[in-house]
């Protein structure tokens, strides 16, 4: 990174003191101190944003970018020299350039340059003739001895110097002409450049990969966005179509129910009119007719009234207003999309609901018992959906103020699984209600027995086999074997002829143990289990 005084002037750097006021130059401390007490000041490059520490000499000690100054000069030359001023008077525009001393001169200074004896032989070139040149920079002068050009290189200080420097500050330092040392120092720079170029290529490749990935990312995002848009549009279309179907279904239900109500209304109105006519005629006959007229008309009147009384009619509306919408209910697929929401006209009838399950009337203490509630409508048809409020209460008959906690699981298909865990044996009353009405079979009684006793022995074919031939192993079946064996054996006395439990002698593997015995017998049975 290179710096120049003009750039630092623009960002507010004091050329004498070397400290910054604004721009991209920052201080390493908040308050200024004398030079001998100040911490090192850093400035930020406006191009690469890298921090450069100012040398002790301040901004003036920074290395000048002579290549950049040469490029600026060429750029001004290509622009017909506009903006260039004379290097001597710093006032008039440049017209010529001295190729010997590398100075840009105005017309007046050029004439004076030729009149002076020391510079009369210098070669002067018109400014327009320099446009094809690649270098038009000025000679690089020593910053300590401005009248001397930097032609030597101090190897000890690793910096270019002039003739006055080597006889002064660099008197005992090894030095040589720049043309003689450029090969060595140029080769070291080139070697370092060769090590840096692969990194540049790697970074360029990394940036290219990032660009490719970013491009692929954009394309992928656009593709996914298109898929989302397509899916959303399809889903919206499916939902709208399902909505229209449900609205049409709702309208059909309304028409059907209204037609049924209108038909029932017309029938009841006609029957009411017939009855009123018959009643009014009969009342008028009885009130105004003579005895003979009543007796003559009696047969017709009685027959009419009897027919009217025999007509069957329903005093309750034939249909109800029960229509509900279940948004969570699956409604199948529409155009390949799963849709939800259904119109329901069924209404659960508690009198038609039934209870099912093996544990309906029996349970065991501290073991979960369950049964199923099957909900049906007034026609006895299964509801086929969930959502009904099923209330269950399990109450001990002797402790009705201590109900058992129950769980009701909605299976979403018109059935409900009820589970509970009684803590003590005894009789319990179970209430199952829907819409504050008992279902069919409710309330009912459940007998809770004590917890099933596990078997202490083994389910074996005989004691000889299960104990590995131990003589003192016993079996509750009572069988024995010759030779001092206390347990049973195949084909010997007392053997039941089939597998059984050694602890209680029961022949069913999944059964409750009924063993009740003394400590000694129990010990021998437990030994059989262990073996």
Automatic annotation (TrEMBL):
What SUPFAM superfamilies does this protein's entry cite?
B-box zinc-binding domain (SSF57845), E set domains (SSF81296)
Filamin repeat ranges are 345-448
Looking at the record, the residues that make up the B box-type domain are: 81-127, 137-173
Query: What are the GO cellular component annotations?
Result: cytoplasm; nucleoplasm
Q: Which GO terms describe its molecular function?
A: ubiquitin protein ligase activity; zinc ion binding
**Superkingdom of the source species:** Eukaryota
Give compartment(s). Answer: Cytoplasm; Nucleus
Name the UniProt record assigns to this protein: E3 ubiquitin-protein ligase TRIM45
